[in-house]
Amino acid sequence: MDTPDSASGTYPAISLSVEGLACIRGGRAVFGGLSFAGAGGDAIELHGPNGAGKSSLLRLLAGLLHPAAGTIAWTAGDGAARPPLAYCGHRDPVKAWLTVREQLAWWRDLEGGGSVEGAAQAMGLGPLLEVAGGLLSAGQRRRLALARLALTEAPVWLLDEPTVSLDEDGAALQGHDRPAPVAGRPGDRGDASAYRPAGRPNGDAARRCRRRAGRSLMRPYLATFRRDLRFAVRHSADTAVVLAFFVVTVILFPLGVGPAAGTLAAIAPGVIWVAALLATLLSLDRLFAADFEDGTVDLFLTGRNSLLLIVLAKCAAHWLTTGLPLIILSPVLAAMLHLPAAGYLMLALGLLFGTPVLTLIGAVGAALVLGARRGGVLIAILVLPLYIPVLIFGVLSVDAVIHAADPWPHILLLAAALLAGLAIAPPAVTLALRSAAE
């Protein structure tokens, strides 16, 4: 088919060349020797029976999988190794606890711009803007997932079974701006497809995207931070369980060792730190599990935003809703255990440096066990040995104050551990997320 002249600005100077591509999943050869090419303005549709490898091919093109053989060569007009991609998998990344408006607003901040109301209207979701995602039907959830495409300025779309669960009206909305295909039968329902939308002035869009990036570099990460805070507020029972566990664990110790004030004062720092450690461990499963199950992690991995900063935003929200409440409660529980008043401030200061380290280490464990059975048990096995130094330094800092020794070496070690965690944990989490996506 004829493609528009990329020099005119109608389409960016983008091309795709696939040579001898092979894919192996679970030890089984899915396909091999696949070669094709495309350029800006082309539409490529994939047809084949179930298990033919259509979804695997799209994930290979998106960079979520590594080919067993062959090459995938993208050429972008701006010199980038790969053009921005809008990937929409067969799972709908729709949160049950976000309204349609909130979900679209988060995608807008993540993707680059656009009108939330316009995106909703484009997919027939205008009357449902204030409806929670958990109340949408399967077809409405699919419409919402596709509405994200109206908020992205990515010049390449990779869509996996875009019309699945849609009625005829929804399929018509999804395909109204669709170009003629290079190969395959247009309009087939349930087929995976990869195509570039027609009729969008991408040269202007790219310039708008760069201007917006300059104005709001941190906007995607702040939006992710606010989204996770909103989740914690709307699922306050999860936070309440963690705090209740912390309080109950500390309260049980006087019942076990007796009410003697001297005994309780001696064990108070260790008891509070162990309880805080276990409470943090209890909350780790909510860090990435929901995003992984609904395909949101795939959006993080294929997007142009820094995955490192997204991970830090999620860890910051987790600490603010878990670690900070533990710090606030610790002086009250310390008083109940007869800890000398001189140790209150040092206990809180140690937790202030130590609980973020627990979150960062726990984030690595939570990412490593994604998709595994009994993930909660595996997280404990992975991270508990790494928690021990934090526990030791935290307890020793309080003991040093109580015995009139210098606590600052232990606090400085906790601060060093925090800096090391900030440097090491986010890259480790990104590698674990990419491994889980495969």
In short:
The protein has 438 residues and is α+β, with helices and mostly antiparallel strands. The protein is built from 15 helices and 7 strands.
How would you state the average pLDDT, rounded? 83
* Computed CA radius of gyration, to the nearest angstrom: 26 Å
Q: Secondary-structure element sequence?
A: EEEHEEHHHEHEHHHHHHHHHH
Strand content: 5-15%
Rough shape? Answer: elongated
Uncertain residue ranges: 1-11, 175-191, 195-215
**Count of discrete structural domains:** 2
Q: What structural class do the secondary elements suggest?
A: alpha+beta
User: How is the largest sheet built, in terms of strand order?
Assistant: 3-7-6-5
Number of helices: 15
Strand segment count: 7
Tell me the major beta sheet: 4 strands, mixed
Distance between the termini: 34 Å
Account of the protein in words:
The chain has 438 residues and is an alpha+beta fold. It has two domains: 11-217, P-loop containing nucleotide triphosphate hydrolases (Rossmann fold, 3-Layer(aba) Sandwich); 220-437, no CATH class. Helix content is 57%, strand content 10%. The protein contains 15 helices and seven strands. It has helices spanning 54-62, 100-111, 116-122, 138-147, 168-175, 202-215, 219-234, 236-257, 261-283, 289-293, 296-302, 307-336, 342-368, 375-402, 408-437, and strands at 15-25, 28-39, 43-45, 69-75, 85-88, 156-159, 193-195. The strands form two sheets. Strands 3-7-6-5 form a four-stranded mixed beta sheet. Strand 1 and strand 2 form a beta hairpin. The chain is elongated, with a radius of gyration of 26 Å.
